[in-house]
């Protein structure tokens, strides 16, 4: 199965409500779609969101990396030589993880199609269904409490609450939410780098003292501040999960060696796709550290690949794959089925995606 062409397009999907974090506010998913065509007629699908505030990747940068480096390195290669393709993809340009992820996902899709197996089975086949949380955007305490109650009515049992804008107000936000939802719901929080280490220790200790029962806190401090994250991990009982601080397998190894966090959030757009995400899983397995699988604001193609990874690997015990359920429509035909918090990967070969509607192809 030889690669004959790699097409690039873009999709735009409005969100149900604006997505607000300590880093940004967005109203729609604006993603790059990659289609890898082969001489057998089979197509692999991939996707990359331009999440400049986290990955540094803009739409233009993703398209530039694809056109100027990645596509010309891969056209003509045979999917059977999978390791060689991955080495080439990962060495043809430094950085540019989102562009690499889109292509890596499409290649794994073809890999599954070549061997007639769904990807989650090829990668380990640990379980047939996973359960995701849903994100509550950062707003006033009253609005967030209402959004949390709505999410529970929709069938979600775990909420990922965005905080990190103002520590004192964040405490009020969490008190209002816990009061509104009661104690049968798991609450995890994501500060998206919004606090200083000392602020984080204070507000998290206040949350503990208020009996808010927080499952874990995600990325309390700046991405580069590993010492600061270790300070938080060492001084609060609430477990700390590293997100923006971990892109590569090397980052994961370094954080685990230093005991700077309790858990790792794997996202395909940080790792550059499944090839490196699998390496992080192995490192975490060695250390016995559980992982979360997360996503950016992405539609169902790339989140679908994350679903397959999560269903394959036992070390992934926390799921934050709510991108598609935040969207007001689903342009992707086939693939995993999202039913409120339950996600079931398809049992067709590869990712199971057959078409993406509404693609505007780029020359
Ligand atoms: C969408 C997901 N639940 C999430 O919160 N992902 C990121 C932020 C993604 C973005 O800004 O696009 C996270 O920080 O965990
Ligand atoms: Mg996060």
TrEMBL record:
> What does this protein's record comment on cofactor binding?
Binds 1 Mg(2+) ion per subunit.
Instruction: Give its E.C. classification number.
Output: 5.1.1.-
Indicate whether Magnesium appears among the record's keywords.
Answer: yes
Tell me the SUPFAM superfamilies matching this sequence: Enolase C-terminal domain-like (SSF51604), Enolase N-terminal domain-like (SSF54826)
Sites where the protein binds Mg(2+)? 190, 218, 243
Q: Where would you find the membrane-spanning parts of this chain?
A: none
Keywords (A to Z) from UniProt? Isomerase, Magnesium, Metal-binding
Q: Which residues hold substrate? A: 24, 135, 160, 295, 297, 320, 322
The name of this protein is Dipeptide epimerase
* Species: Blautia liquoris
